[in-house]
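Dear colleague,

Thank you for sharing your sequence with our group. We've completed the structure prediction you requested, and as agreed, I am returning the results in plain text so they can be pasted directly into your records. Please verify that the sequence below matches your submission; if there's any discrepancy, let me know and we will rerun it promptly.
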Amino acid sequence: MDNEWAKAFEAANGRKPTFAEFTAHQQELDQASAAASVTATSQAAPSQAAASTAAPQSTAAASQRQVVGYDTQTGAPIYADDSAQPAQPQAPAPQPQASQSQPQPQAPQPQAQPQFQPQAQPQGPTQPPVPPTTGGAGSGFDFGAFIKSPKGMITGGVIIALIAFFAIGKLTDCTAAELQSRYSAAMAAKDPAKLLKLFPHSQTKSKFAKDGAKQLIKVNYAASSIMSGENQVVRVTSKNWLLFFKKYQLNITPTTVKLAKSAKQHALYYKGKKVSTNDLKAPLFYGSYTFTTTQSSQFGSVKAKASVAGGERKSTTLSFPKSTNYVTIPGGPNTFKVSYKGKATDITLKAKRQKVGPFSQNVDDPASELTISGTYGNTVTVDKANLSDVTENGGTSLPNSDDDGMMYELPNSAVTYDFKNIKTNVDAFAKQYFKADHSGSWSGFTLVTAGYKDNAELSGDDDSDETDTYKNIDFTQADVQSYLGDDGSIYLYVPFNINYTYKYDDDSDTEDSSSYVAITFKVAQDGKLYGASNSY
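Please find the predicted structure tokens below.
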């Protein structure tokens, strides 16, 4: 029977009965059963038969009645056919006439329960009846249980998020009037941090932005010129903020910094503190920023500085000027090395002039601190020739050269010569020269450089009645002068006398004589000397 009642309840209400509902139903059955039992005892046999028949009918009828709700005070069921008025007690059933003189005792009747009309439901899908709750006297909603449920937690989270959303939006928006007031306050307080908060973060994230804000405070643009749009450096912009709010901000043109090669080669410093190239990846805020770099070399440290401006152009380039404190050294043999302040460097002479440096700005005359040393062709050895002494005369053109090559005089105080080798080579040259000059022919003249013959003159021998015989040469060592050549060579200037004798064809007389010749020789790497030009 209970299973059938549960199925009927579920069919009528669209859900299974709760434990309280089932208990109320069971109590109702028990009360009906008790009433039927008492009636059966007090009546005669025919009445007992009728009562026994009525009891199951009453029980069945009670189990078939449709429950539409429960009293929130007592938990008693409310049926669909109950009226709004309390049930009237039933009159006692008429007793059959009998010989008994005493009235029969009546069975106790169950107390009538207050009946409630079902409440009218709003239009829409039929809602299942709500079981009684423990939310409090007269309450049909348990808030504590609801808020702990998944649906309650979602609903609460949404409400909290909406409250936070509108609170944040209200706290972080900024009207035009508020912006002007905050700008004026930051300027009056000379507070760069407050000033930067009025700009978008993307424009103030540079490591140097605070210094830029200090510069902006010194400029002190009038708030009215900014708010009216007259100011072209600092402007006002607005944007929708969190959908429902509007935010006004100050705005500048953030400047991207590009690094030239000179800014990448050496460490960068800003106000004496080392910075990295990563520090310059964020766009610059308004202002002028000066960076320094130290260019270290074997000739000392050279400081350079360069400035870039932010806030007005989209991009700029940080480039350090090249130092002007360089020295040009002459060309010469690559066996000659350069020293600075007595210390060897990795610089050697080349077959062309070259610049060396940079030198510190504290060195007034770097050339005076440079010296040249080396040996060439086993003929000339130079020891610490001061570059200032080498270049002070400006040099002279290379012999028989069509280009701008120069040769520079070496101070004899720094040069040692192998005079034996020089004399041997000059003597060999003089013999060829004497023969060519007296014969008027260059035939057999080999100890000369290319171009020598094009610029030299032969006198020839007009005295046909004489026979001249070469004897030797002589020269003064102090008269020998050496030069560094831009073509990578050493040149020697050697004035000498060619001594010879002549006699007439009739052998009537013999005399000694000499000819003065000054030749500029080019020294080969093997020590041989080749005539390069004549000096008369």
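Summary note from our side: The first helix runs from residue 2 to 13.

Kind regards,
the structure core
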